[in-house]
């Protein structure tokens, strides 16, 4: 199977999974999981994402600074997404891009932990911000409200996205699950394939808490009002 093809055989003849192990020689090339040509192709894609992602999000930030009309409550969430995505390009993609050029992870165990933490943290911030943005658009379409723009809720959502992200990305640094190499061995993430109780409990709690958060948000708006334009006279 595809899963079994990712396993490698050590010198004692036993099978180990390189994707979930932090106890390896970090300065040595990882087990062959992708050809050098494959690594170079990946570096081209990562380089493109890094450059264009950084430039595009930088343009968004400049526009927000230059034009006051763009600083609406809902756009605070878009700004938060741009900031987190730009940080991914700076703090994460640069490392995986350089590692792909050399066909191995270059930054050791602590660099892998930083990469896994940064990518996970900024990625979750973007996802939570998108969830808040979707809910805001849903509320706008279903609830008629003539009140003046309210910045309090979007700013609370921005702060909440960062706190939620840190709540789930700091524990792997402290021993609840962990960060390790993934995929082709040139990037790092939470060790989803680890068979330890800590990893299992972390994944289960992350999944259940996420579903609970979605249920809480949806339960708070069971009977939305139709906008004026959608009501019958």
From TrEMBL:
SUPFAM superfamilies: Family A G protein-coupled receptor-like (SSF81321). GO terms for biological process: visual perception. It comes from the Eukaryota. Keywords: Disulfide bond, G-protein coupled receptor, Glycoprotein, Membrane, Receptor, Transducer, Transmembrane, Transmembrane helix. Residues 1-14 have a biased composition (Polar residues). InterPro entries: GPCR_opsins, GPCR_Rhodpsn, GPCR_Rhodpsn_7TM, Peropsin. The chain crosses the membrane at residues 44-65, 77-101, 113-135, 155-179, 199-216. Residues 56-233 form the G-protein coupled receptors family 1 profile domain. Pfam families: 7tm_1. PROSITE patterns: G_PROTEIN_RECEP_F1_1, G_PROTEIN_RECEP_F1_2. GO terms for molecular function: G protein-coupled receptor activity. It is a multi-pass membrane protein. GO terms for cellular component: membrane. Residues 1-24 are annotated as: Disordered. It is found in: Membrane. Its main location: membrane. The keyword Metal-binding does not apply. Signal peptide: none annotated. Belongs to the G-protein coupled receptor 1 family. This is Teleost multiple tissue opsin 2a. It comes from Hucho hucho (huchen).
């Amino acid at each position: 199977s595809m899963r079994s093809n990712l396993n490698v055989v050590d010198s004692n003849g036993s099978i180990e999974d390189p994707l979930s192990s932090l106890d390896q020689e970090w300065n040595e090339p990882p087990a062959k999981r992708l050809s050098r040509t494959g690594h170079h192709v990946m570096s081209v894609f990562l380089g493109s994402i890094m450059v264009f992602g950084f430039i595009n999000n930088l343009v968004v930030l400049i526009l927000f600074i230059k034009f006051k009309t763009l600083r609406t409550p809902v756009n605070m969430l878009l700004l938060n997404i741009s900031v987190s995505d730009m940080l991914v390009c700076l703090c994460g993609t640069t490392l995986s891009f350089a590692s792909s050029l050399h066909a191995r992870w270059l930054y050791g165990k602590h660099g892998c932990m930083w990469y896994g933490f940064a990518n996970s943290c900024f990625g979750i911030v973007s996802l939570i911000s998108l969830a808040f943005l979707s809910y805001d658009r849903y509320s706008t379409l279903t609830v008629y409200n003539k009140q003046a723009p309210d910045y309090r809720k979007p700013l609370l959502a921005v702060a909440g996205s960062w706190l939620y992200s840190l709540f789930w990305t700091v524990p792997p640094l402290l021993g609840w699950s962990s960060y390790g190499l993934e995929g082709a061995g040139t990037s790092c993430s939470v060790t989803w394939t680890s068979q330890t109780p800590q990893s299992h409990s972390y994944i289960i709690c992350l999944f259940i808490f996420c579903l609970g958060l979605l249920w809480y948000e949806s339960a708070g708006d069971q009977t939305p009002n139709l906008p004026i334009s959608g009501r019958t006279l």
